[in-house]
Amino acid sequence: MFTLKIQALFNIINRQGGGTMRNKEIVDAICMHHLYEYIMVNYELKILQTSENIYKYCELQEEVAGLFDYVPELIGMEISLEDIIENKRSNFVIPMVFKAPESYVNIRIQKGIHSEIIIILFENITEITKAQRNLRQVNNENMLLVKEIADKNRQLKQFNNEMYRLVKEEMAKNVEKQHMLELQTRHAQMGEMISMITHQWKQPLSVIQTVGTLLKIKVESNAYTPELFTEKIDNIINQAKHMNNTVKDFQYFFTPSKEKVVFPVKETISSLLGLIQMEYRLENIDIILEGSDEASIHGYANEYNQVILSILTNAKDAFQANPHSHMKIILKVEQKESQTLLSIEDNAGGVPDELVETLFSQYVTTKKNGSGLGLHIAQRVITDNMGGKIWIENREAGAVFYILI
Predict the structure, then answer these.
(1) Most buried by CB count within 10 Å: which residue of 267, 268, 306, 343?
(2) What's the pLDDT tens digit per position in 234-282?
(3) Pick the CATH number of 256-404 from 3.40.50.970, 1.10.10.10, 3.30.565.10, 3.30.465.10
(4) What number is the average pLDDT over the span 160-168?
(5) How far apart are CA 372 and CA 392, in angstroms?
(6) In the chain, what are the domain boundaries?
(7) DSSP-assigned states of every residue in 341-380
(8) What 3-state class would DSSP assign to 113?
C-alpha cells in the first residue's frame, strides 16, 4: 500500500494538469526529498520523461525505447494498462518488486486526469521491507522461543510432578524405615531390660525358694509353729511385692511420654539406675551419680532416660571389649542458668578419633555386630523432640557424652 505522501503527489499532479514539463517539475520537486523515482509515458506507451535516478531500478540503454524494456514487470499486464487508457480504472499497483542489488519497490501505475499521460512511480520500500522481514524473523524466532519455553515448561512440570511423586514415595519409605529402626532399637533396649529384670528377680526368687524349702522341711518334720509359718509367708509376700514393683518400674520406663513435663533430672536418672545397677555390678562396673539435686528439665522423662540407657549400654559394651580392675561410669548433673547439662564419663578407653564427628550418624557404630541406630535415635530424641544438644569428647581414660537441654 502506498503512503499518504505518494497519494498527495498524484493529487497535486491531477489538480495542476498542464504539459508534461509542468508535471515533471512538480514530481521532481516532491521526489527530490523522498525515496521515489518515476517514468512518464503517453497513451502510446512512449517514454516522455524520467527522474534523474531512475537507473537505480531500470537498466537504461541508448537503443532501448519501449516501456517494457524499462519496466519488464509490466509484461503480461497489458490489459491493465489498456483499462487505464480507456478510463476503466485510474491506477494499479505491483507490490514489493525486488530490484538488484538489494532494493525493493512498490510500482504504482497512475493515470493523469488533465493530460493523456501515465506515470509509473517507484517507491523504495527496502528499509521497510527489511524491517518487516526482520520483524517477521524476530516474531518467528520469538514464537519458536515461546514454543520452546512452553515445551520446556511442560517438561519441567512433568519432571517436577514425577520428582514430587518419587520424593513423596521416598519420604513415606523413609518414615516407615525410621519407624522400623526405632522399633528395632526399642526391642534391643527391651532385651537389655529383660536381662536386667532377670538379675533383679534372681535374689527374691532365691529367697522365695529358700523359704518354701524351709517350710516344707518344717511341715514334714512336724516342727513348724503358726508364728513361724506366718513369718515365712510374709517374707514370701514381700519378695513377690518387690518383684511386682520391679515389673511396674520397667513397664513405666517403656511407656512413651504423652506430653512435656518438668521433671527433676537427678531423681529421674536415679530411678533408671535402680533398675539396671545390679546388672552393672555383676559386670564389676561402678555407676556413680552426682551433681545438683535442684536441676530440672522441661521435656519427656522416659525418652530422656532411654537416651541415657543407650549411652550406658555402649559404655558397658566398651568395658566388655576393654576390661580392667577399676571400671566406672560417672554421671554428673549441672544447672547452668536456664540450661541443664548432664555429662556421662567412662574409663573404657574412648572411641576411635575418626568416628567422633560421625558417631551420631545413622549406621555408624564401634561395635562388631552393632546396628549404629542407638546413638542416632538418641540424638533425634534430644535435638528434635526436646530441642537440646548431644555430643561426645574423648578423654585420656575414656569418652564423655554431654547432653544439654
Answers:
(1) 306
(2) 878 877 876 776 666 566 555 666 688 899 999 989 888 887 777 788 7
(3) 3.30.565.10
(4) 88
(5) 15
(6) 4-124, 256-404
(7) EEEEEE-S----GGGTTTTTSTT--SSTT--S-HHHHHHH
(8) coil
Integer Rg of the chain from CA: 54
Binning the chain into helix, strand and coil, the percentages to the nearest 5 are 55, 20, 25
DSSP string across 177-232 = HHHHHHHHHHHHHHHHHHHHHHHHHHHHHHHHHHHHHHHHHHHHTT---HHHHHHH
| Contact criterion met (CB below 8 Å) for 371 and 363 | yes
∠ CA 309-195-393 to the nearest 5 degrees?
A: 25
Q: At the top level of CATH, which class does the domain 4-124 belong to?
A: alpha beta
Check if the beta carbon of residue 141 is closer than 8 Å to that of residue 37: no
Name, in order, each residue with C-beta under 8 angstroms of 163's C-beta and a sequence gap of 6 or more: none
The order of strands in the sheet holding 103-111 is: 47-50, 36-42, 117-124, 103-111, 91-99
Q: How far apart are the C-alpha atoms of 373 and 404, rounded to whole Å?
A: 21
Report the C-alpha gap between 72 and 253 in whole angstroms: 107
Cα angle 183-186-187, degrees, rounded to a multiple of 5: 85
Confirm if 363 and 342 have CB atoms less than 8 A apart: no
Amino acid at 76: G
Q: State pLDDT tens for residues 204-242.
A: 777 788 878 888 887 888 877 888 778 878 878 877 876
CB atoms within 10 A of CB 379: 21
Residue at grid coordinates 521497510: 128
Residue pair 306/381 in contact by the 8 Å Cβ criterion:
yes
Q: What angle do CA 297, 302, 308 make, to 5 degrees?
A: 80
Q: Per the structure block, which three cell numbers stand in for 171?
A: 519420604
DSSP 122-178: EEE-HHHHHHHHHHHHHHHHHHHHHHHHHHHHHHHHHHHHHHHHHHHHHHHHHHHHH
